[in-house]
Here is the input.
Amino acid sequence: MWLAVEGVLDPRWTDEIHEEWIRNALEDDAKKNTPPRLDRARLERTRDLMNRHAERSLVTGYERHIAALALPDPNDRHVLAAAIQSGAEAIVTFNDRHFPDAVLAPFNVRAVKPDAFLCDRFDADPETFLRAVRALLDSLRNPPMSLDQLSEGWERAGLPLLARRVR
Here is the structure.
């Protein structure tokens, strides 16, 4: 979100995408052998803050495109439909095999892995990117986090190239 606030990227999402990440976060949290750290109300508050602070990001009217789309996983059609509706250039996903180039190309959309996408944004404007990282670090108070800790978290999350660039 700090990258969006600083203008490093211009994200797009839908209520359906929000519901997906909330459900997945709750499921992932429940799979851990620890007491749950997340609850739906807290995640819905995060969703509401995301919508408020990146107000152009919420895509509506995308549903009309869904029926005409064919993807390896039909449950992903809403993502491509939102990209089409919003004129997005890329779908940022770890699961790029669900978004084949042959299907996306007619819509001038491409699937990009998060690490590559964020590295491109970093390379385009490192100063602004690092300002967003600093704002993120400054906002983390409970507990606070160092740049090394943040970078280590990015590496665990599948963003090793970004972690190296930012370090």
